[in-house]
Design brief:
The chain is an alpha+beta fold. 21% of the residues lie in helices and 35% in strands. It contains two helices and seven strands. Strands 1, 2, 3, 4, 5, 6 and 7 form a seven-stranded antiparallel beta sheet that branches. A hairpin with a 2-residue loop joins β4 and β5. It is globular, with a radius of gyration of 13 Å. The relative contact order is 0.19.
């Protein structure tokens, strides 16, 4: 499993990309038998107090936020910051879960 690289609001993520030069990331994607073009951020930890605790799991890969592709942890942070700046109420996530299934999640933010 890749090592944690960045955290956002009680969840920690790391880059997942087969094109990344870091062999840990490539090995992680290969071990999941994912398409080599897959990129996103891998969830490495979720705090028990996070609103995402029952929606996401460690090793899920976030590939889109609000229909925008996520290729790095900085993309994720920018998308989440933009969401909050606009005052939107539902965060749309596209995730590849541990069974390599694409899931679409709408997370209501109070």
């Amino acid at each position: 499993t890749p090592k944690s690289a960045e955290s956002i609001d009680d969840a920690k993520f790391t880059l997942a990309s087969a094109k990344n030069s870091d062999s840990d990331h490539s090995q992680f994607l290969n071990s999941r038998n994912l398409n080599k073009k897959t990129s996103g951020v891998v969830i490495t930890e979720i705090s028990s107090r996070s609103p995402l605790i029952n929606l996401l799991s460690v090793n899920d890969i976030i590939i889109e936020v609000q229909k925008s592709p996520i290729k790095s942890t900085s993309d994720l942070k920018k998308s989440v910051d933009s969401f909050f700046a606009k005052g939107e109420k539902t965060l749309l996530l596209t995730v590849i879960n541990k069974n390599n299934q694409r899931r679409y999640l709408g997370v209501k933010i109070n």
